[in-house]
Amino acid sequence: MTKVSGFVEWLPEQRIVELQWLDEIRRTFESYGFCSIETPAVEEIEVLLAKGETDKEIYIIKRLQGEGDKSDARLGLHYDLTVPLARYVAEHYNDLVFPFKRYQIQRVWRGERPQEGRYREFYQCDIDVINNNTIPLHFDAEMPAIVYEIFKRLGIESFQMHINNRKVLEGYFKGLGIEDTIPVIRIVDKLDKIGHGGVLTQLQEQVGMESELAERCLAIGSICTPDLSFVERVRALGVQSELLEQGLDELQFVMNELRNLPSGVILADLAIARGFDYYTGTVYEGKLAEFPALGTICSGGRYEDLTGSFISRKLPGVGISIGLTRLFAKLVAEKKIQPGPKSPTQVLVIFPDDERRAEAVQTASILRERGLNVELYPTPIKQAQQLRYASRKGIPYAWFLPYAEKGHEVKNLLSGEQQAADPTTWRPSPAR
Amino acid sequence: MTKVSGFVEWLPEQRIVELQWLDEIRRTFESYGFCSIETPAVEEIEVLLAKGETDKEIYIIKRLQGEGDKSDARLGLHYDLTVPLARYVAEHYNDLVFPFKRYQIQRVWRGERPQEGRYREFYQCDIDVINNNTIPLHFDAEMPAIVYEIFKRLGIESFQMHINNRKVLEGYFKGLGIEDTIPVIRIVDKLDKIGHGGVLTQLQEQVGMESELAERCLAIGSICTPDLSFVERVRALGVQSELLEQGLDELQFVMNELRNLPSGVILADLAIARGFDYYTGTVYEGKLAEFPALGTICSGGRYEDLTGSFISRKLPGVGISIGLTRLFAKLVAEKKIQPGPKSPTQVLVIFPDDERRAEAVQTASILRERGLNVELYPTPIKQAQQLRYASRKGIPYAWFLPYAEKGHEVKNLLSGEQQAADPTTWRPSPAR
To answer: Which positions fall inside the Aminoacyl-transfer RNA synthetases class-II family profile domain (chains A, B) (predicted)?
Structure first.
């Protein structure tokens, strides 16, 4: 009997690091004023399919016992946090204050075939800003800045955020006289997966493009700059349209807002488009330069209408989502994440003998009231065995009750240093 | 399109309190040295049914699209955290250090018919201590002490923990010459629901007991004392058996360990037995004296063998589980929980005009680096409207950039007090 394949679970020494990550992400989201919401894991299938997405494999749920009530709605597990957000905002519209800034850190489920780097259950960490009618463009720059700050705090150095604006691609293709731009955008978006040759071939074979036009479509997708020079490079392609100008202006504004981040973190990458999604302006794809095969680890963008299928209000927004589990699992596998201790305990109070248990319990309690994580060894076995337990669990300090002429003492199990200590004032050294 | 009935979701102002609760519970668990684990929401049905439990309504999951791979295991959502713990310990046995002390705070799912106070998805907050072969009895006392500490921190005053030991009931009934004690225990366990008359009737009708014997069975179940006097009251019933003596000794030890908690919090309640569960010694049921109809809000006990159905090792343990959602929902409904602010933001930086956005962003950033939650109003609308936004979201401070001869100023929106402030040193008043 083992856990189901395609699902991931961590040992305590990895989970303690995952918890630190989740705390750091939450703290950063909150520092920018995003409030927490959680939605049920389960939505009606009609809600999950409201945007017509069918490329995500949905899990449906049914009661095992009994025949199942015919009146029961058809239910499924959410496969992202955006559809539930749309339903939540529509349902609680009158109780929310706009602009509504929410974060949501929850597991989502997809019925993927198990394969490396694909999980059937994973954490998504989302932020979105939603407002009535309009959202200023500077929020489009705030999203990547927040994600960069998180990755910096987590010590992930090779993070790169690729940014584009769908209006640039659409405007450019329209300027080339292409009417149905969607399949073209979709093919150019695959540039990093299928390469230049692949894009040209698919444009010719799937859209029936002449080779010269296909080259011109590829040309814009090949532009990827860490600065504002993309503007000149697009202009040099000699295509004009109002939409293209608007897209370039917006992308230029966003890139300029992010100019103070370290060079190379932010890239204007004119190939990306986030597939068929409902994004209408800025789009993001975050990657690790160190692990290109890992693909996109966060993504998002701006949309014109979050809740269109649920209520008749125009609620534009911009948001971004970090796919935490795949990233975390990769860094664990690559040994870029060192396991933490197997226990949150900071101090093991040595249990000397049965007569002194009350005294040991009381000492533990004094330390605990002062905010420390403390446990007693369960039984008064040999001291060496108790210390071995501490060391195996990664507990950094052992506490010794007064003995003979000695008072309380505490031992740093890493340095081996042992010294007198008062349980009402002692603190672990901040070095740890 | 609304959320599915039987599922609960909170507005931001309630969720912020739920998060504080979850933090407090986690912090307390960690302070006693319990490590965090999480298991997948999904287990094989065979795992979920391994202990033969069928009274919990299990949700099965299937892929919506495609025919479903015939080789796929039958999968279901976990309905508690104990079965996944058993599977986890069996699967990772060689990587864990024993005694293994884990906490687990996750949602679980049950296909209940929607009704008041019953949810199909809810948080459970579990701790368990598991060891090879033996676990000292003082852990049986630590569990209620930890839960009491949590409820005290959460400001829940009417909490009462009812404690019994299954050996007391079983030993007593055996001492009365009853061979099949299970149905008798089961009926006496229902005392708080069906009353004395109900217990007598069911003992006579369902087990075919003589009225005199039924009265003697009821007599032990009626004993409920806040101190050690239950021992004398049991002895006064004149029944003897070795198992009864052992049970009384154990319960007496546990009650004695908890003697320093405020009077009335801990009750030796000889009726409770946790139904058909796999508990073998101490059992717990926590309730709110204020809301008896709410029923059990936490429960647990000691078991001889956690993983018996998965590996051939004897792993006894003791644990307790808080059913958070039902408790939280009840206290929200009864207005015992006041809504928090609609946002974690502590300071709203007023956005004076477009020219000064960079300056406002920088001020926000300085405050944020110092650990504060800060946002800018999105657009430079009238100050009064920006302040109204802060007040509607429950943001306690508004920050004003230097203007004319004035420097930075901060306004406490509750007191109305406004004063000069330096963004590199200012702190909100600790009163909040």
So the answer is: 25-352
